[in-house]
Design goal:
Layout: E1 38-41, E2 47-50, E3 53-54, H1 59-69, E4 75-76, H2 77-84, H3 90-106, E5 112-114, E6 118-121, E7 126-127, H4 128-144, H5 157-163, H6 174-200, H7 204-217, H8 222-235, H9 238-256, H10 262-267, H11 269-279
Helix pairs in contact: 2-3, 4-6, 5-7, 6-7, 6-8, 7-8, 8-9
């Protein structure tokens, strides 16, 4: 966790809000430290780490662990079997599930609690996605909250890096694609909200970084590009703002045959007018 980005920002990491009596602002405390023996990473690719070392597990069991780890609580065996083996009979799906569980046990992995009806991660197993998703929701919610319910945050580089990661990239299972798309939409809005908050706090380097991460993820997304331009303008870098607009305009025309919206044009109208006047001045050819 990075240091606070301003005196108006406190610490948060996706845990329930505690509203002190008589106050209108939700206050957040850091999460309790885990004494986890194992961690599952779903962002940027699947990884299982036990202690400090990556663990090797059977390839087929990765899908089982990932599916359960995507859920915040126990998952019925029937749901697991139907989603992981959708193209076979119910009997074969349950047999494949038992086989995957046996392979995990044979590899010495005590990651799942397998009950007769439900599957769940063992106690103390951390999941990066489950820890970051509440923070992303919090950022989006705080972007539309009224001033009386503003959320205090203390975020920085580590959160930007985490929000820049895709969920299970390269996985083609229908359930993985569905979850990945939902996460993509959420993290894009969260990055934009975070960049806007950095601009308000006058932390322009972080604002450019967060907005730039959103632009790199979705180069044709105008809302992300607009916030990046706003960050450059707020910092006083007019040339950077104008170049960013020109790059986006050219890309949008080349890829989709579209033009920027009036809202985006309004951000750089004065800059474009000044550039045109300068380009057409005495002794210089008009652009």
């Amino acid at each position: 966790m990075s240091h606070s980005i301003g005196t108006d920002l406190g610490a948060v990491r996706g845990i329930p809000a505690v509203r002190p009596p008589g106050t209108g602002e939700a206050q957040y405390a850091p999460p309790p430290l885990r004494s986890a023996d194992a961690r599952i990473a779903l962002l940027g690719g699947f990884r299982l780490v036990t202690g400090h070392d990556p663990a090797r597990i059977p390839a087929g069991s990765e899908r089982l662990l990932a599916f359960v780890a995507l859920h915040s609580g126990p998952v019925p065996r029937s749901v697991v079997a139907e989603n992981l083996w959708p193209d076979v009979s119910e009997r074969r799906a349950y047999a494949s599930l038992r086989s995957a569980l046996n392979r995990l046990r044979g590899a010495g992995c005590r990651i799942l609690d397998a009950g007769p009806v439900e599957l769940a991660l063992a106690g103390g197993v951390g999941v990066d996605f489950q820890e970051l998703r509440p923070l992303a929701h919090l950022l989006v919610d705080s972007a539309v909250a009224s001033p009386g319910t503003a959320v205090s945050l203390g975020l920085g580089a580590s959160e930007i890096d985490a929000l820049s990661q895709d969920l299970l990239p390269g996985w083609c299972d229908e359930w993985a694609l569905r979850e990945a798309e939902e996460w993509r939409q959420l993290r894009m809005h969260a990055l934009e909200a975070l960049a806007t908050r950095f601009i308000s706090a006058q932390h322009f380097g972080h604002a450019v970084w967060a907005a730039g991460a959103a632009v790199r993820a979705e180069p044709l997304r105008e809302t992300a590009r607009a916030i990046l331009i706003k960050a450059h303008l707020a910092e006083g870098n007019q040339s950077e703002a104008l170049r960013e607009f020109q790059r986006y305009r050219a890309l949008l025309q080349a890829e989709l045959g579209l033009r920027p919206t009036a809202r985006l044009l309004g951000l750089v109208a004065d800059l474009r007018s000044a550039a045109t006047r300068c380009a057409g001045g005495p002794g210089r050819p008009r652009a």
